């Protein structure tokens, strides 16, 4: 990881068998000031990362010959290499996005999205990862920390604590929790949650309401992470057909 001056950009690894696309993304990242390492296949990338894990984020294609993206992700997690992974792919079916998120990826972005959107997602994820790497005493006292019942949110570092135990949320998951907790006791629509993560007006899944299943997948993973800490966790309430609500502990 880069831990020098604030203006030192992160190291991004791009794994994609499409030469033109890989080179195009790499050039955009270089122009944005990032350090970039590129690989045309999973095995060569894994070998290099095992030898030198100096990477802040991996951009990973799904459809590659020999070893596909989900297999690469599994090898990274088994290593274990804790580097955040974003799937950057032409696949749009909901089943792939769910598999990626459940497998440990932090985001899933279609290749058709603009580089500006990809760059912003990278900035958010890398910033959150760097803050998590700091000793706890350096960030627990953040001035932007807010409490909602047993939940503490450190917005600057994207850290969430439940009953003073850190919940290992991704940046996207943190933003969802912060949105709901910030409206504790009020309903939050599926569309509001999805727009927060993917961008306003973005569509996914089958049909005009396909995004709802994507939101359900996010909420399922978030609930499980809280329940791993507190088996009695019930702060996220369902409102079928509408969305979710964070329980107001003052009720």
Structural class: alpha/beta
Low-confidence stretches: 1-6, 131-142, 202-207
Q: Order of strands in the sheet with the most strands?
A: 2-1-3-4-5
Q: Report how far apart the termini are.
A: 44 Å
Mean pLDDT over the full residue set: 81
- Identify the CATH homologous superfamily of the largest domain: Response regulator
Second-tier CATH architecture of the largest domain: 3-Layer(aba) Sandwich
Which topology of the largest domain does CATH recognise? Rossmann fold
Tell me the total number of β-strands: 12
Q: Supply the number of structural domains.
A: 2
Number of helices: 9
- Which percent range describes the beta-strand content? 15-25%
- CATH C-level class of the largest domain is Alpha Beta
Fold and architecture overview:
- This protein has 251 residues and is an alpha/beta fold.
- It folds into two domains: 11-131, Response regulator (Rossmann fold, 3-Layer(aba) Sandwich); 139-246, Winged helix-like DNA-binding domain superfamily/Winged helix DNA-binding domain (Arc Repressor Mutant, subunit A, Orthogonal Bundle).
- 41% of the residues lie in helices and 20% in strands.
- It has helices at residues 19-31, 42-51, 69-78, 94-102, 115-132, 136-139, 171-182, 190-198, 211-229, and strands at residues 11-15, 35-39, 57-60, 85-89, 107-110, 145-148, 151-154, 159-162, 165-167, 187-189, 236-239, 243-246.
- The strands form three sheets. The chain has a five-stranded parallel beta sheet, with helices on both faces.
- α4 runs parallel beside α9 (211-229).
- It is globular and about 50 Å long.
